[in-house]
Amino acid sequence: MYAARFFVVVLFSLLSACSDYPKDVENTLDSIKGSILHVGLIENPPWVIATDGEPKGVEPEIIQQLADKLNAQVRWHWGSTAEMLQALEQNQVYVVVGGLITKPKLPKIVTSTQPYYTTRYTVGFPHNMKAFPDKLKGETIALPHISPVREILLSKKAILLPMENPESEGFPVVGPVWRLQARAYNLGPWMLLKQQHVMAVAKGENAWISVLQRHLNGLNQGAINEHLRQLEVLND
Amino acid sequence: MISRAPHQLPADKEEGLAKLVKLTWINFGFRLSIVAILYLVLGSSQAMRAAWLEDVLSLLPPLAFLISMHYRNRPPSDDYPYGHHRVTMIAFLCSAVVLSLLGLFLIGDSSIKLLKAEHTTIGAIELFGHTIWLGWLMVAGLTYSVIPPMILGRIQQKWAEAVHEKTVLVDAKMSKADWMTGLAGIVGVLGVGLGLWWADALAALIIGLDVAKDGLSSLKEAIGDLLDRRPRSMTTGKALGLEEELEARLEKLPWVKQAGVRLREEGHVLSGEVFVVAHSDTDLTRRLCEARHLVQEQNWRLHEIVVTSVSSLESHDQ
Predict the structure, then answer these.
(1) What is the pLDDT of residues B196-230, one digit of tens each?
(2) Topology classification of domain B11-226
C-alpha cells in the first residue's frame, strides 16, 4: 500500500510542476515559436508542387498557415523521401510533407500525425456514358501504368487498360475522387481504396506533434477537397 | 479394476468454492473490460503496451480456473481411475509459462528501447470535436485498470486461502501485479509528457521485471507440484508438516509400533501413503481400517490415503 501512496505522491508532484504539457524531448516547439520552421518537402503533386519560387500545393499551404499562427518563418528544404525522413530523425527539419499516407507504413525512425484527410478511389465514367454498370466485372477501365488500385480492380475481374494518358480515350477511368471530379467524370458507387494522409514528425516531440495535430484537425475537409480539385484543373 | 471414490468437499468449503467461482467470473468480466478499454487508447507508448499485454495475459488464470472447475469434479472413471483433480495443475503450469515468457519479452524489448535511446511519441487525437493529448486518455484508461484488481485481488486472496485454490491465489498475485503495472504505466506516460524519453521504457522494464518475477515463482511452484513435492502452505511456502502430525497421531494408537507417512498434492486434494509397523498381526485388517479413518479425519484435503502394514520402516526405505 505504501508503494501505491508513493506513486500517487510522485504523480501529483510531477504534474503540478508543469504548465506546458506535454513537452518535447528536443524542444522542437519552443525553437519554432517566433523563429524558423524548417520543413522537408518531397515533390508529389497536388500535395506538394515544385515551382521556381515558393512551393505550391495543399500541404505547403497548410504548413504556412500553422507557421503564421506560431509567428514563425518557414524555410523549405527539398529532397527525396529517404533523405527527408533521415533529416527528420536528426532534427534538421521539424516536419516532412509530400502526400505521405499511412499505408505502406513510414519507416520506424520517424512517426506521423493522425490522418487529416482521406482520399477515396473510385471509377469515373465519362458523362456521355448514360448508365453505370452494376458490377466492375468485365468492365474495361483505363488507368495509369502505376496505380495503387490495380490489384483491387484485378480482384474484381475488371479488364484493365494501363496507358500513358488514361483520360484521353473516353474509357471509364479509375482515380482519386478529387481528380475525377476535376475532370467532370460521373462517379461510380464503388469505394475501391482509401488513402489516409499524414505528415511525418520526429519521434518524441509530443508538444510539437500535438500543436500540429490540433492545426490539422481544425482544417475544413470540404476546403481541402476543393483545393485539390482546383490544383488538378490548373494542372491540365 | 477399481477407481477412486470421488472427493467430497465439506459443506462450508463447498460454499466457499461456489463464492470463489462467482468472484472469478466478476474478475474475468472486469479484466475483459480493461483489455478492451486500454486497447482503444493503446498508442505507441511502451509502458502502455506492456500494461495492456499483461492485462491480456491476466485473462488466462481465471479462465484456467473456470475451465478446470468444470473438469475437476468429474468422477474418477475406468480410464482416469485417480480422478481429474490434477487438471488444476495443468492450468497452473500453463499460466505460469505464459507469464514467464511475457516477463522476459518485456525486459528484452524495453531494454533494447532504452539502449537505443528511442523516443516515445504520444500524439493528440480528436475526440468529440476537441483535440486532446492521447496521454490523458491513456492515464484515464490505466486508472480504470488499477481500481478493480486492487479491490478484487484482496478478496480473492482471502477466499482462495480458505478453500485452498492455488490457481486463484496465483491470480490474486496477478491482480496485484496488474494494478501496480497500471500505476507504473501512468508514471511512464506522464513522464513522456514531461519530455523524459526514458520514462516510458523504464516503466515498461520495471513492469517486465515484476511480471517475470511472478511468472518464474509460479513456474517453480507448478513444477514442484508436478514433481510431487511434499505439501506446502500456500501462504508461507513452508512445508505444512502434516506428515509428522499424522505419524505422531498414529503412533499414539496402542497397536502401532511405528508409523511413516508421505503425501503429495493433487490440486486442492492431498493423497499419499501411510506405512505402519504393528506390534502384532492380530486383527490387522480392522486396525488398518481404523488407522485410515483416523488419518482421513485429520484434514479435509486428505483423500483416499492408502494405509499399509510393513514389518519395518527401514526395510521399506531400501
Answers:
(1) 989 888 988 988 898 888 889 889 988 988 899 99
(2) Alpha-lytic protease prodomain-like (1.20.1510)
Residue B244, phi then psi, degrees to nearest 5: -60, -40
Q: Do B120 and A203 touch (CB under 8 A)?
A: yes
Q: Are A209 and B123 within 8 A, CB to CB? A: yes
Smallest CA-to-CA distance from B158 within B270, B20, B34, B28 is with B20
Nearest-CA neighbor of A16 among B198, B190, B186?
A: B190
What are the boundaries of each domain within chain B? 11-226, 242-317
CATH assignment of B242-317?
A: 3.30.300.30
For residue B50, the model assigns a pLDDT of 82
> In 3D, which of A32, A67, A209 has the Cα closest to residue B125?
A209
Tell me the nearest-neighbour CA distance from B134 into chain A, angstroms: 9
Look-up of cell digits 482503444:
B40
Task: Determine, for residues A217 and B131 on separate chains, whether the beta-carbon distance falls below 8 Å.
Answer: yes
The pLDDT tens digits of the residues spanning A88-147 come to 999 999 999 999 999 989 998 999 999 999 999 999 999 887 777 888 898 899 999 999
In chain A, the residue whose alpha carbon lies closest to the alpha carbon of B135 is: A22
Q: Quick one: what percent of chain B has pLDDT higher than 70? A: 99
Contact B125 A23 (CB under 8 A): no
pTM tops 0.95: no
Which chain A residues are Cβ-neighbours of B187 within 8 angstroms?
Answer: 7, 10-11, 14
